[in-house]
Design a protein that fits this description.
- By secondary structure, the chain is of the alpha/beta class.
- It has one domain.
- 23% of the residues lie in helices and 16% in strands.
- Strands 1-2-3 form a 3-stranded parallel sheet, covered by helices on one side.
- Strand 1, helix 3 and strand 2 form a beta-alpha-beta unit.
- The radius of gyration is 13 Å and the shape is globular.
Length: 91
Amino acid sequence: MKACASKGITCLLVKMPFNLAVFDVNAADGLKEHCPDVQNWYIGGHSLGGSMAATHLSENPQNYEGLVLLASYSTSDISGCGIDVLSVYGS
């Protein structure tokens, strides 16, 4: 996020209960009101956070242009959402 922000990309990090996104899958709700000038929204996360971001996106595809998965995977079928997905992983 720091690298993206240093390039002028607005980045928001949502605090999760107990540092686990599974306890608040819809934590991204309401973020658009904080940054009304942002027109293209992407959601993502690392590990379980990415899976919960995909779940949130699957229920709100109209709110996002894409999904970023960092060492993660989607637990929801998002194939019909028509969004871009960037999946980064290593071994």
